[in-house]
Specification:
About 0% of the residues lie in helices and about 55% in strands. It is mostly beta strands. The chain has a single domain (about 5-85, about 95-135), classed as Sandwich (Jelly Rolls). It is elongated, with a radius of gyration of 18 Å.
Length: about 140
């Protein structure tokens, strides 16, 4: 039994991207970083609250792209420019690698996925923070 018809729960997705893919249509090597699901018994989906991109290596100028996969097509959702940021080598290097986190606020239907690609062959961790929502069949 639930106290409200609306049910929410956290949904965090993640993945690593590293294989160069300059395609603008989502085809080629890609990684699913988030899957929308329902928190309730009926209906629902997910809201992507924010996305964190964290370089694991020195990076050169390029792009990380996000695509929405609906099951019937891929759609370019967002492009995130990556600046040239080489790391100084040697012991005791304290220069951080590139990272960016940005708010999104995008609602996805249950079963829809968010796919990430990188333009250059550089390793990134992508973490997606979301919220699943759904509705319960609460007795009146």
């Amino acid at each position: 039994m639930c106290d409200s018809n609306l049910i929410t729960k956290p949904n965090v997705g993640s993945g690593q991207i590293s294989i160069a893919n300059s395609n603008m249509d989502g085809e080629g090597t890609s990684t699913i970083v988030f899957t929308a699901s329902s928190a309730g018994e009926t209906g629902g989906g997910s809201v992507i609250n924010s996305i964190l991109i964290k370089a694991q290596v020195p990076v050169t100028q390029g792009m990380v792209r996000f695509f929405i996969h609906t099951g019937s097509g891929l759609y370019l959702f967002r492009e995130v420019p990556i600046p040239n940021q080489p790391l100084a080598g040697g012991v005791g290097n304290t220069q951080p690698s590139f990272s960016i986190q940005f708010n999104v606020g995008f609602t996805m239907q249950s079963g829809t996925t968010l796919i990430a690609t990188t333009q250059n062959s550089e390793l990134f961790n992508v973490i997606v923070f979301g919220t699943d929502f759904g509705y319960c069949n609460c007795p009146s």
